[in-house]
Structures are given as structure tokens and as C-alpha cells.
UniProtKB/TrEMBL annotation:
The keyword Cytoplasm does not apply. One of its GO terms (biological process) is retrograde transport, endosome to Golgi. This is Vacuolar protein sorting-associated protein 29. The lineage of its organism: Eukaryota, Fungi, Dikarya, Ascomycota, Pezizomycotina. Gene3D superfamilies: 3.60.21.10. Residues 189-203 have a biased composition (Acidic residues). Keywords: Protein transport, Transport. Residues 6-164 form the Calcineurin-like phosphoesterase domain.
Amino acid sequence: MASRLVLVLSDLHIPDRAIFKKLLTPGKIAQILCLGNLTSPSAYAFLRQLAPDLQLVKGDFDIPLTNTTTTTNPQQPQSQSNPTTAPEASYPIPTALSKVVTHGSLRIGFTHGDSIIPPGDPDALLIAARQMDVDVLCWGGTHRFEAYEMEGKFFVNPGSATGAACWSGDEDLTGASTTSSSRGGQEGGGEEGFEDEQDDEDPDRNTPSFVLMDVQGDVLVLYVYQLKRDKEGKESVGVEKVSFRKNAGGN
């Protein structure tokens, strides 16, 4: 069975920081799952060019961004001219809060995550995964990468593709993420979960990240791309890998 590459990304609040464009080549990715907050027509156009199948769900900052041009009637005096605006490019605002796609024998659900209460809570995510009847649940909103297995299901947060700051104001969010990662590894019986490493010199700086899913049958190999910065300020892209197999624990 041929494998399929699925790009998962979220929270592109700052399109000028689209630092991963050089790593993504059109024609190699079969499907893109965008987990909300695609707030730029240029980013939407790039993703449409990257893969023919672009799936969107509603985020909490989706707005109808449109590039416009202003035109005036040259026959009218300047003081009486009536400028009009014409849209050049825009993208549709998604309305679905969640979606489910199927690759191989895996059902993959995805949502932005603002409907998950408390945000990023592993028990709330497990309930959502059961309600959607999925093997893999992707969610966003926290702007921080996280992946773990719990009770036979795989949970993935791709983080923010542009490293956007998190505006939740919840100081316990980072602690909750760390707890859920270790908890998922213990209860899931699979590989221990892990999350992004924050900059020691700038703990408020989120690490830009996205993930690629290589799906073949009942096996999913997750490739995590993160822009990391060393102590001298030099940036480089790090890639890590984690695997998930459906019913690996015999459930």
C-alpha cells in the first residue's frame, strides 16, 4: 500500500514569518490539514499551490482578509470623485469546527481546539476523539507542538507555523502540556510523548513548527519540523520522528 504525506499546520497569524516555505515542495504532499487561523490570502494561495487537497477548519481569529485596489473615475473632478474598491484576492472563511479524513485504516480528526475545555486538557481531548470516532486527533490553538499517545489514540498539536505568541494568558498552560505529554506516554503504552523546547533565554518565544504525517495502512510516522535557535542566536531546522500504530496495544 502506497504511503501518503499529509501536512498539518496551524495558527499562521504572522504570514511574514513563513520561514518553512523553502522546505515544502509542490507535488509531494497529498493533503493539507489547516487547523484554523489562516489569516492571510497569500498564505492561503501558497497552500493551494502546494497541494490540491486543502482542508480547513474554523479558528478563533479567522477574518475575511481581502486585498483591494482603489479606482477613481477620471471624468469626474477630484473633489467629486467616488473611489471604489475592488477585491483582488481572498480566501473562504471556514465554518466547520472539526473534520475527519481517512488515510489507510486510520481515521484522522482535526479541530482548532478553542472548543476544547480546558484548553489542551488530555481528558477533554480524549472525549473529543471518542465523539469523533477517530484514531488520531490533531488540534491547535496553544501555538506549541505536542504529541502523545493515550488509550490507543494518538494526539498531535503541530504548534504555530510562524511561532506566534500565545494570548491565552494561562500561566498553567505550559505545565498542563508537559503533564499531558508524560501522562500520554504512560497510559498509551506506546512511545512517550514530547513537546517543543522553549528558548531558555526567551521563555515567552514560541518555537515555529509544523508536522508531516506519512500514513501507510495502520501506521503513522510523524515528522516534526521545528525552527530552533542556539545560544549564539543562530537558527536551524530540526527534524524529529515518532511513530504510531493502530491497535498496537491489542485494544
